[in-house]
Amino acid sequence: MFTDEYYMKLALQEAQTALEKEEVPIGCVIVSNNRIIAKAHNLTETLNDVTAHAEMQAITSAANFLGGKYLQNCTMYITMEPCVMCCGALNWSQISKVVIGARDEQRGFINKNLSLHPKTEIITGLLEDECSEIVKAFFKNKR
Fold first, then answer.
1. Is 55 a catalytic residue?
2. Active site residue: 14, 23, 55, 81, which one?
3. Roughly how many angstroms between the first and final C-alpha of the chain, as a whole number?
4. Any idea what the Cα angle at residue 76 is, between residues 25 and 8, rounded to 5°?
5. For residue 83, what is the DSSP state?
């Protein structure tokens, strides 16, 4: 059985892939029964689509894999706290657990007093420094 840290490191690899595509480096992995069912990263620039966040890409991929819209008994590992849009999608998906690397104090859903599905467990701060640093470095290089 793999650990939360193992899966978050895979999400960080997805963030690195986004960085190489000059996307905001956020990565995501969804796991069900210790099996990776979706991996994704931001594709907003590549697809010219503001909704193409890593979470949205992964939710769609996981739902297609499972053959249904609900992600019960699934865990999402995301390098950066989801935004309001992604929070809404996660809420509707009824995902069981979300593990967040770094918080997003400005655009994240937590400071907006929003919540996920009542049965969704939320863990924050896993590999926080690594998850935060890749995004900070990206924006520092953009300016």
1. yes
2. 55
3. 42
4. 55
5. B
Cα separation of 77 and 39, whole Å?
9
Amino acid at 127: L
Sheet holding 121-124, edge to edge: 35-41, 27-32, 74-80, 97-102, 121-124
| Closest to 62 in 3D by CA, of 73, 51, 52, 50 | 73
Q: How many CB atoms lie within 10 A of CB 72?
A: 14
Q: What 8-state DSSP symbol labels residue 110?
A: G
Return d(Cα 47, Cα 45) in angstroms, integer.
6
Q: What is the pLDDT of residues 63-92, one digit of tens each?
A: 999 999 999 999 999 999 999 999 999 999
Q: What is the per-residue pLDDT for 141?
A: 86
pTM, rounded to two decimals: 0.96
Q: For residue 48, is pLDDT > 90?
A: yes
Q: Decide: 26 and 79 in contact? Cβ < 8 Å.
A: yes
Distant-in-sequence, close-in-space partners of 30: CB < 8 Å, separation ≥ 6: 36, 37, 38, 39, 58, 59, 61, 62, 71, 74, 75, 76, 77, 95
